[in-house]
Description:
two-stranded antiparallel sheet; 7 helices; globular; Glycerol-3-phosphate (1)-acyltransferase
Amino acid sequence: MTIFRSALFMLWFALVTAIIAIVCLPALVLSRRASAWVGRQWSAATLFGLKLCAGLDYEVRGVLPKGAVLVASKHMSMWDTLALYLLLKDPAIVLKRELLRVPFYGWYLKGAGSIAIDRQAGAGALRRMSHAAEKVMRQGRPVLIFPEGTRKKPEAAPDYKPGVAGLYGQMGVSCIPVALNSGLFWTGPGGFLKKRGRIVVEFLPAIPAGLKRAEFMAVLKGRIEDATRKLLIEGRTLLNAQNA
Length: 244
């Protein structure tokens, strides 16, 4: 049944993506807000289809951040990007520059004001990322970054990159850590399998501005990994109970 539900969702996802991407093309020549609106509709439609077709819902814990703040989240699946883009108020997502080259998807990412980085550019990439993030925060919007730089399987060892510390230090703002357990439910080769259940995403207490680099990284990693570990235990318990 999991394979059937997953295939049904993929059909929904393909249809919704094609329809929204084509019908909303004029938004790309309008304004950033128009492209961001399209992104929110696509995310909402995808999550609705995930619940309808695959029986996979989600729960939000903690206090949703508001305004100009840095949000640093664990990253296990595509679900994270969809849900956080919908939950946060008009965020700018820090992402790999290569994603902007993907037809339709990349066009809307660029139009919505995402912050693209070139991993090969070294210190120059951090400066450009910081300048772009400062512009976003002057607009009163949050910046969303995945500190490990890529999706990680639930059992994978953490690998936090220095970019998040650079943003935190240069912008002088608080940072909201985010833990989740989506990798237990959005899984399989290419992320095809969608297991029935409930993903939990948890917004953790803010890390105040002003910590030194090493201290900030230790606190960020500790909070995210500790909370994620608990959510993974909770998620596995739910899955085991369903399979019993």
